[in-house]
Backbone:
């Protein structure tokens, strides 16, 4: 797993940063037309593509509604760039809730290629609130 940054390309979510390094990678705009964003992203995406092998799918868990992630990444990964079809029409919080529920319920979302997919759509119905018994704050659950 890697995280897309505003001007530092792709980074591991486990990486530790100094305050100066953190300030450096978050400055700039996440915009496909912005070279400070796009050049490091494309550099790191090519490295990922080259190391992943031809049979590996790359799953984008960010927004697919705009071109800020899609345009640079589909050009590098092509048909191998996938996203959960259930993301269409959902905002950040709804996508996050959907991911948490899929992990809790051990249900894999349906991944489809980004290239040629419908990426914008009507907002789906709100996700149901989890039952109190499904929410164990501060406790680990068997199987997760």
Residues:
């Amino acid at each position: 797993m890697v995280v897309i940054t505003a001007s530092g390309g792709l980074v591991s979510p486990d990486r530790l940063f100094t305050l100066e390094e953190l300030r450096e990678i978050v400055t700039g705009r996440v915009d496909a037309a912005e070279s400070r964003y796009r050049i490091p992203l494309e550099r790191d995406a090519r490295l990922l593509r080259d190391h992943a092998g031809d049979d590996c799918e790359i799953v984008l868990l960010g927004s697919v509604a705009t071109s800020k992630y899609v345009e640079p990444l589909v050009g590098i990964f092509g048909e191998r760039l996938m996203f959960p079809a259930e993301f269409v029409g959902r905002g950040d919080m709804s996508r996050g809730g959907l991911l948490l529920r899929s992990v809790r319920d051990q249900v894999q979302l349906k991944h489809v290629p980004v290239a040629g997919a419908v990426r914008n759509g009507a907002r789906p119905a709100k996700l149901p609130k989890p039952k109190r018994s499904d929410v164990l704050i501060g406790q680990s659950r068997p199987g997760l």
